[in-house]
Sequence to fold (559 residues):
Amino acid sequence: MDTLEKVIEIVASTCDVDKSEVTEISMVGDFPAWDSMGHLAILNAVEEAFDISFEPEEMMEIEDVKDIVAAVNSKLQ
Amino acid sequence: MTIEEQIYQHSIHYPDHVALIAGDERVTYAQLWQRCLLAATNVRRLFGLRKGDRIILAASASMDFVYAYFGIHIAGGVCVPIDPDTNQTRYELIRESTQPVCTMGALHKVEGFRVLPLGEVCAAYEQMDAYVHPDEEQIADILFTTGTTGAPKGVALNYRNLAAAVRNINTFIENTAEDVELLALPVSHSFGLGRVRCVLSQGGSLVLLGSFASMKKFFGWMEQYRCTGFGMVPASWGYIKKLSGRKIGQFADQLRYIEIGSSFMSVEDKDLLCELLPKTRICMHYGLTEASRSAFMEFHTEHDKLDTAGKASPYVEVAIFDTDGKRLPTSMEGEVCVKGDHVTCSYWNEPEERFAQDFFDGYFRTGDCGYLDAEGYLHLKSRIKEMINVGGKKVSPMEVEGILNSIPGIVESACVAMPDPEGVMGELVKAFIVCDDETLTDTDILAALRPRLEAYKLPAVIERVSVIPKTASGKIQRLKLK
Fold:
């Protein structure tokens, strides 16, 4: 499973929406559950799933699925 | 003077001063008043609204929300603000209780009812009605809190209550018309809605951000609009800190004040804020929907009292009573009770005799336990009621238990507060369950809960036990589970 697919799965499950509703440009606020609490839950789940840890400056830049994927990929390189 | 009259006065004396900002849109006080009048005219025209009729307003912070909220008041209606994420059961109970003429805004988790989009309420209409000043005793808002049983409880606030709360808060925080406040709090709750009233009554400018979710936007707007203050709950600070580290310190010269809501915040977090913002008035309140901001403290000037809830707010009295309603002296622990014009005038649909039981000698009983020290500082010890405080939002254990118990395979359950291991939300819900179906997984349970509960009410941990401890009369002994 590639990074995008995994991230979409995490976002969908945290926000309780169907995977088909989540795209690369889905962002904070797009789903009712993607509020600050949801955002934190998504970032925690991503950190756990990829066994990585984001710095505050990195997290601040993350607003959409694309950002999450980019942040994960830069950590995994 | 009501908040609406104060806004009207600003529209006359400072018509071009900016009242609201959202993205690229700016609204002056003259425009704000016209649009509130327009919303008032529309709700009368669309629903034949009469004095005292209720309207449920389910929305997050937006310009239209502000017009609709004040428009309902101007039209003589009673506003019932609720969270757009309110679940079906809660909405139906609130609807049943208030018998509204309509629901406006958006409801994400409710089906089968008509919800009028706010755009229609704020649409242009030629003939506008004149504003009639309300009676101070008239109910302006009904805010539903989570009662101990989980059933929503309507806190009625009249115009005197709202005006008094605003006066108390603005006196303590020292807001001025020059302030530009970044509003990221939900406006369906007492704190966020209170900030809207405080800023607009003072003639300041309100920047409608809506949520803390995007830190990039939070800091971007703070810089762009030169914001001088904002309100947050301790969980928001946990979030800001986690996602942006010490960045808030870059705004130390710009931020004149921060108001912090009442839930647990560690002394370390308070110290960190003081260090990052040495010139900012950092004001933390203690209060409840029934008695908004009853005590206040400022972190810098009262630094040696950071472990307390502060002193009684301006124009408010705080006293401690025992269970028999006898006033207790300094240092004696008992129920925290408050007195002032800000205290709720009634609970909606509750007889006066029942409401009277919530008072001791004119002081409202908060349900919190604590004592006052010799200098008048309030030390909170525990909650008499068993609410779980998830990031500032109250969760009734009984509400979650009721739904858990209806899941096939769960015999009974008990929910308690657990500390958030991430240190962000303060408390989280922990569920203890007795199961007679070993195949039932946590995923199954959460999937069954999700459609019926708001996300913050979902248990973070589910533990299986063989028995739930109870008293002889069958009451769950939650303390034994902590």
